[in-house]
Structures are given as structure tokens and as C-alpha cells.
Amino acid sequence: MSELTLPHTWRPLGVRMAGIAGGVMLLVLCGATWFLFDSEVRETFTLFQRGTALLLGLFVASLVHALVRARAVATSEGLLVVNGYRTRFYEWAEIVAIHLPRGAPWAMLDLADGTTSAVMAIQGSDGARAKQAVREIRSLLG
Fold first, then answer.
1. What is the pLDDT, as a whole number, of residue 102?
2. Region of 114 on the Ramachandran plot (φ > 0 left; ψ -120 to 50 alpha; else beta)
3. Helices (DSSP H) in the chain: which residue ranges?
4. Per-residue confidence (pLDDT) for residue 1, from 0 to 100
5. How many C-beta neighbours within 10 Å does residue 19 have?
6. Mapping DSSP to helix (H, G, I), strand (E, B) and coil, where does residue 37 land?
7. Residue 127 — left, alpha, or beta (φ > 0 → left; ψ -120 to 50 → alpha)?
8. CB–CB of 95/141 below 8 Å?
9. How far apart are CA 80 and CA 90, in angstroms?
10. Helix (H) / strand (E) containing 116
11. How many other C-beta atoms are found inside a 10 Å radius of the C-beta of residue 43?
């Protein structure tokens, strides 16, 4: 195994690809549908309906953004974990172990205080890539 250079960042691959591709396809589909309507049909939509559709689109975009921004950054001081819109920093002494059980959606940190914390940056669906990330973090735990 090669020596890991710090800082090092892990990000989920499958979730990012699906989120970005799905978001772009949804935007293109909705935009094309709107412009394919003739002017008479477009005029039947009220300002409130247009605003509601726009707000719904922004809400979905914020959810996709939360998923694709997940990351874990190892530094010499500890591990920064970004899950959605929540960011936590764990010093190395706080982390007892990291696990990625078979069938689990993402890796879990076992913490010194007896609690656990999800690491959504390491997705089980990424297969060998996720297992390698867990091994690399374990090597940093000592």
C-alpha cells in the first residue's frame, strides 16, 4: 500500500455522478417541456403556479447538492466529515474505528465516547473504491 499524502479527500463517485446527471437531465426535460408548450398553454399557468414549480425545483436542487457535496478530508490533526449540510471535525484520538459493513449505505465511525457517526463520503455502492478508502482511513488511525 502506498503512503497516503495529507491532506487527502474522499468523495462518493456513484452518488455524485447520479446526482449531477439526474439533475441536468431533469432541468433539460422541464425546460424543453415548457418551451414545447404553445403560448396559449403557457399563459394558463398563474404566477403562483410558476413560482411553486420554481420553488419545488430549487428544493430538489438543494437536496441533490447536499448529497453531492459529501466528503471526508484527512489532515494531520484529524478527519473532517461533511454529510449534506452538516460538517464535523474529529481529532484522530476521538476515532476508535471505521467500518463499512456489507450492505451498509456508507461507512461508520466508532467514536471514543461510545457513539457512531456516518461518513457519507464513503458509499457502499462504490464497491472496491469504498473498501480502499476505509483501509486508508484505518491506516491513519494507527
1. 93
2. left
3. 14-36, 39-43, 47-68, 128-141
4. 46
5. 20
6. coil
7. left
8. yes
9. 6
10. strand 116-123
11. 9
Pick from 124, 64, 115, 73: nearest CA to 94: 115
- Give the tens place of pLDDT for each residue, 24-71: 999 999 999 999 999 999 999 999 999 999 999 999 999 999 989 999
- The set of cell numbers assigned to 74 is 484527512
Report helix, strand or coil for 97. Answer: strand
Q: Which three cell numbers stand for residue 121?
A: 463520503
**pTM of the entire structure?**
0.85
The burial of 128, by beta-carbon neighbours within 10 Å (0-12 exposed, 13-18 middle, 19 or more buried), is given as exposed
Sign of the alpha-carbon torsion through 92, 95, 96, 100: negative
Decide: 120 and 141 in contact? Cβ < 8 Å: no
Report CA-CA distances (Å) from 60 to 54, 106, 141: 10, 22, 37
Q: Which three cell numbers stand for residue 123?
A: 458509499
- Hunting for cell 457502499 — which residue is that? 124
Q: Residue 71 has what DSSP assignment?
A: E
Helix axes 14-36, 47-68, angle to 10 degrees: 160
Q: State how beta strands 78-83 and 71-74 pair.
A: antiparallel
